[in-house]
Structures are given as structure tokens and as C-alpha cells.
Amino acid sequence: MTTDRRINVLRAVVSDFVREGEPVGSKALVERHDLGVSPATIRNDMAVLEEEGYLYQPHTSAGRVPTQKGYREFVDQIATLKPLSVHERRAIETFLEGACDIDDVVERTVRLLSQLTRQLAVVQYPVTRKTRLRHVELIPVADHQLMVIVITDAGDVMQHVIESEQPLDNLDVTGLRIILNADAVGLKPEEIDRLLQRLGQHITPEQHQLATKIIHVINSSLESETEERLVVAGAANLVRSRTDFQGSVLPLLDALEEHMTLIRLFSQQTQDETDVSVSIGAENEHNAFSETAVVSDTYRSREDTRAHLGIVGPLRMDYPATMAAVRAVASYLSGFLRQ
């Protein structure tokens, strides 16, 4: 990119093409934008931008359309993200109010993100490889059956029913619960494995068999949280945008069903605490995403746990608005989970 003026011309072309969906000519730029130069100068600038690979002309008599390189330059020139409107901010707050567990939070978030951006939205569950136990509750449900409720510090609640070889009335379940919460809270899966040895001096021989089963349940619950899971919403938005794709959207829809493909796309995007990541077209390594843009950000449920959320859409999208929505939802979600 050689001059600030040509950057302004490129911005104008991208903005008009995103809005109208039609090739943009110099006459339209003069009418719609205050570029401060003559139509002849704009035509020359557009010709140079085409030579440099930022624009292309689909037909001889048509205007110009941004290339993937042009979209990349446009995104790179976005210095600040415009704030969301009061209505949009309130919509985020309202969507998350009343969420009862992490599943509910993730489901609400992905639907919200899809509605705000009108794109396909993806939210990854918190990657909780360092999940710790927050609390364990023991509730007798029959003479020999005990419900074990495991609550993690990521907010997940899991319950299992186990069988006891002895009547629970003989095993002081309340006392065992107190001991487990005193010794196990804050431990990670690999530390739970060693817990039974530490409990030996605090529990009776009769409680040992039941405690072994409870610890196994706790450990299994924590380890299950290492799976990288995500949810997707808004596939219909991609179908409605199919005219923006040169070929069929079916390969893309098939690829979206392979969640590990999306997880790899997210993991390949470099992100820090201040930037929204945008990968455009060929920058996405999977062939099915070669005509898409992926806009993503990270959110945190606590200091050592972070995950991705974002959208997948056509190259012709409102990048500033989409990036602002993704950033805002990630920020709100982080704050909500930390509460």
C-alpha cells in the first residue's frame, strides 16, 4: 500500500461492496465519500490497487471488488473497534442473566453472538485442563445408593449415583462429606488420585470402600472436563449468504460438523488480551474455509482457563461491527463467569 489516499479509497471500496454487494466504480465513490480528489485520480488509484492485488475487476465494464488481500489490508487498518449501542449492550446482559450452569451460559452465548452478527457463531467450552474441585455433596437416595454431586471451579455441576456395599446409615455420610470437602477442595485430577492415601487416617475401615468410589467419581468428573467441546448456532445464516461463495456451501457445512476442525482453526489464530483475531480466506488452512472469514476472541472463566468464541462467515462481511460484537461478547462472558 503506497499512500494514505489509496488506503482511504480501499476502505471506501470495501465498505460499499460489503453494503451493496455489487462491484464499486469510481463514480459511486465520488458520490458517497468525501475523498477530496477528482474522479480521475480515484480511477488511477483503483487501477494501482488492482495492480497491487488489493482489488479486482470481475468484468471489463464493471467496478472493482476487494480481494482477500484487500480485505486483509482493510482489517489491519482498523485501529479501534466502534462501541456497541446501548441496545446491543443491554441485549448481551439480558441474554446472560439467569443462566444456571456452564451449559446454559454457552448455549445462550452462541445464540446471542449469532443474532448480533447474523453469522454462524461458535463458542468453545472453557478449556479446563486445570479444573479443580470446588465442592462435593453426598445425598443418600436409598439404603445402599448415594448421589455424588461434583461442582468444579469452572461452574460445572455433575451428578452420579453409586452403590454402597453397606447400608449408608452405618457409614456416617455427613462426616465423610465434611472430611472430603476439607481435604479435596481445590485439588486437580492428578492430585485427587493421591487423596485416598491422605484420607486413611481420617476415615473408618467401613467408610474406605465408599470413599474409594466417591473419589473415583470426583476424578472422572474432573478429567471429563479436559475434552475440548464447542457449540455452533446460525448455520442458516451461511446458507442465506451462499451467493457470496463461488461454489457450494455444502463442503463448508460438512466441515463445520467436525468440531475438531473449528478447534484447530481457533488454536491457529494468535491472540493477546487486546486484539480480536481475523483470518481471511486462504489464511484458514482447511480448504473448506478458503472463502470464509473467521473472527474470534478469547474469554476467561478464571485466571488459568480460557477458551475461544467467534463467527464464521463470507469474506463480504461488516468487519468492524462483527469484530466489535465478538470482542464485546467475549468481554461480557469473561466478566459473567468470573462473578
Structure description:
47% of the residues lie in helices and 19% in strands. The protein contains 14 helices and ten strands. It has helices spanning 4-20, 26-32, 39-51, 68-76, 86-96, 102-117, 173-184, 189-192, 195-199, 205-224, 235-240, 250-257, 259-268, 319-338, and strands at 55-56, 65-66, 120-124, 133-142, 145-152, 157-163, 230-233, 277-280, 292-302, 305-314. The strands form three sheets. Strands 7-3-10-9-8 form a five-stranded antiparallel β-sheet, sandwiched between helices. Strand 1 and strand 2 form a beta hairpin. The chain starts with a helix and ends with a helix.
In short:
The protein has 339 residues and is an alpha+beta fold. It has 14 helices and ten strands.
Main attributes?
single chain, 339 residues, alpha+beta, five-stranded antiparallel sheet, three-stranded antiparallel sheet, 47% helix, elongated
Proportion of β residues? Answer: 15-25%
The SSE order reads HHHEEHHHEEEEHHHHEHHHEEEH
**Helix/sheet category:** alpha+beta
Strand order of the largest sheet: 7-3-10-9-8
Helix tally? 14
Mean pLDDT: 85
| DSSP summary, beta strand count | 10
Biggest sheet overview: 5 strands, antiparallel
Q: What best-fitting shape do the alpha-carbon axes yield?
A: elongated
Which stretches of 5+ consecutive residues score pLDDT under 50?
none
Approximate helicity band: 40-55%
Radius of gyration: 27 Å
